[in-house]
Every structure is written in C-alpha cells, then in structure tokens.
Design brief:
Layout lengths: L50 E8 L8 E3 L6 E7 L8 E8 L14 E3 L3 E3 L1 E4 L8 E7 L4 E3 L3 E9 L2 E14 L4 E7 L10 E9 L8 H4 E7 L7 E2 L5 E2 L3 E3 L7 E3 L5 E4 L10 E7 L2 E6 L20 E3 L7 H4 L2 E9 L9 E4 L14 E3 L4 E9 L1 E9 L10 H4 L7 E9 L8 E10 L2
Parallel strand pairs: 2-11, 21-23
Antiparallel strand pairs: 1-3, 3-8, 4-6, 4-10, 5-9, 7-8, 10-11, 12-13, 13-17, 13-18, 14-15, 14-28, 16-17, 19-27, 20-21, 22-27, 23-26, 24-27, 25-26, 28-29
Length: 439
Amino acid sequence: MNNTFLYKPLKGFILIHIMFFIVCTSEDLHAFPPSVFNVAVVNYPGDKNTIRSVSLYKYGFGLSDPIIALNTDEKLQLEFDDLDDVMVRSYKFRIQHCNGDWVPSDLIPSEYIDGFQVDEVNNYAFSLNTTTSYIHYELIFPTDYLRITKSGNYMITVFEDFDETTIVLKRRFKVIDPKVEVIASVKPPLFLKHKFNKQEIGFSISLMKSYIQNPAQNLKIVIQQNGRTDNIITDIKPVRNNGDELDYHFNNKSIFDGGNEFRSIDIKSFKYKSAQIQEIDYFSNAYHVLLWEDEGRGNKDYRFSDDINGRKLIKTEDGINSSTEADYAWIELSLQSPDYLTKSNIYVIGALTNWAFNEYSQLQFNSETSKYELQLFLKQGYYNYQYIVKDDDVNAGDISIIEGNHFETNNEYSIFIYYREPGTLYDQLIGFKKIIAPA
C-alpha cells in the first residue's frame, strides 16, 4: 500500500475533519447544451448514498476479477470513497457464503470462517487537493483474524459500527479450490446464420483425480461474458461422459452475441481533453466533462479497438496518489436518437455503473436536444462502457441494436464449475477458466 496512506484504528475515538468550502460564482453554463444534469449525487442501489468508486479485486492486480484460491496467501483488496468526509466512520465487515446462484448457503459462519466473524475496515486517508472532498477506505482480506475455509461464492458486506442493518455496501467475490481442469475455446457457431455475429464456447472438464458422482445433476456450469450478469448462461449438461473427461462441446446452449468493442472515457487529467472529450469546465463547485455525442454502430462494419472489456481503472495524472488525489467530475454522455430507438430502455453498462440495469444507468430522452442522455459522477480514471437495450420483461439486454454484433469482437469468458457433493449443504467452486475470444 502507498506509504502516504494513513493507518489509524477507528476504535475508541472520532476524528473531526473541518473542511473549507470554496464557492465558485462564475458558472459557465454556456459551454454545455441543454441537458438532463441532476443536482444530487446518485449512488448504486444497496450502497450508502455517499459511497462512490467501489473496487474489489485480487490484491496487487487492479484490473483483475475478485477471485482467489483457497488455502493460499492470495488476498483481495476492497476500496471505496465516502463523500461524507465530516468524520471518519467506524466501518466493519462480514462475509456470507453463497451457493452458485448467489442464494446464501445453509452453512453457518463457523463452518466457512476460521476466526472472528466480523472485522474492521481500519485503513483510511483524506482526499488531498481535490475539489470534491472524500475519505478513502481500503481493506485487504482475508485477514489474520478472519480466514476462509471453504470454496464457493461469497458476499462481503460493509456496515457501520456494530449495527449490521446499517449497510454501507455489498460486493461479490469467489474462492476457488481447483480440483478439475477446464479446457475451453471460442469458435463460430455451427449454424450459418450465427456464424458472423455470435460466439460459441466449447469446453471440456478433465476430472483429474476427482470423483464426481452424477455430474449431470451435481455439477453446475456458469459462463459469464465480460462482467455482465444479465446474459449469464447456466444449466449446461455434458454432451458426452468419457469417464475422466466431460465433454460440453456443441451443447447448443453456450452461445453469446459477439457484440462490439467497448467505448471508452479517459478522464485521467482535467488539464487536457482526451479524444472522447468535447469540453471540460468547472462550475457549481465541480468539474463537468461533456463527451462527444455517440453514434449507433448497429449497421457498421467491425473495427478493432483496444479496451479493458468493461472494467474501470482509477487513475489521475494530476497528482501522485490516485487513491486520494484523484478528483471527481460530472460526466455527460449523449447518444443520437434514430427513429428505431423510440421509447426504448437504453442503459450504459460497464464497471462504471456496476453492470446494473437501473435508474442510475438508464439514459433519458431529452426532447430539447433530441438525444438520449445520462450523467454520471465519476472519479478520475479510465472507463469502458457500452449501450444496451433491455425491456423490463426480459432477463438479458440486447447489445446488437446500438453496438452491433460481430464474431471478431474480443470478449472475456469466465467458466465456473460448481459441485454439490451429495450429503453436503453448499456448492464448492472446483474449477475456473478465463478465455479471450476469438481464439
């Protein structure tokens, strides 16, 4: 951790931080066209309304998925900002074991935790030289006092003081105990009509020395595309059981839309305008960044572009320590509104909106500008995003309408293998494989 970070136990005292507010009286509103800018800072459902920039990843690998191996020294790092910077909060955390479908398992905490069931989030630092003041919190876990003893899905919950009903945030992570090997690749589907716009994941599971009783019933396969949760594919059955290998190739189910490469927002510095930025201004006590208008790509040819597959990277070039010196800004996105998008529910998807379809990620139609618009309050860094259309009565959104659909698109696929051993009360996570498409 950066040596400028303040290590202070929270127990036993309250630190009062007096802030001086600088009021900006010269508001250059003319730099921005009429918009649907909101006045209040919005947050994600389930998070305390002052919590921003939550990141959970494998310790030492800021762009990694929150996955660690059981019985190793691997750890996870949780970071978040609290915009309520008047006082340092006494935050605690606990973890909950879940089954493969994220429903809490029937295990009691002492069956998957060695040590205390509650521990502290006791590392924090105040923001420095930022127009938006905040307190940055960090946690590296499992800790010496809270160790995980079983594989599977987990939910970490941060709460205030000792009141577990005062929830600050919740995030998911996974602990794997590798007992099988997954061999996988991405190929064009066999059906000619899908050959150029979809991607099929073919895979097999080598059982190695593991004995899996009735794999068709007791194994649960989960395939995830990038960070999306709306189009996850499950309930895949083996096509052939070859004894020590289960074959899932050509199962007619593990097929995804290829989609398109992610769009990007680069706000690592407010001193210059990156390619996506039309205007940077400061008014109403905050930075405002207007992006160039986005166009639909549904009918355009595929073009490769580097991306980070929907992730976010908190980073500032205007300071040294991005954790505490990165500032915040209102980011305005706008999308052209062709006739075929009338009355459509359009969402901005990626880590910048926690991959969620909700009121905070949904664009609103602005009749004055004839565009779909959305404003997000983001910390300096680099973000990926896409536009997805999703009706209220369907589970999976449609990426093809706005972004297009191409087999050539580079997507990440994560394959998770869960095993419910007969007579036990939980799903073990015994296999994991990440592949990049196309192969």
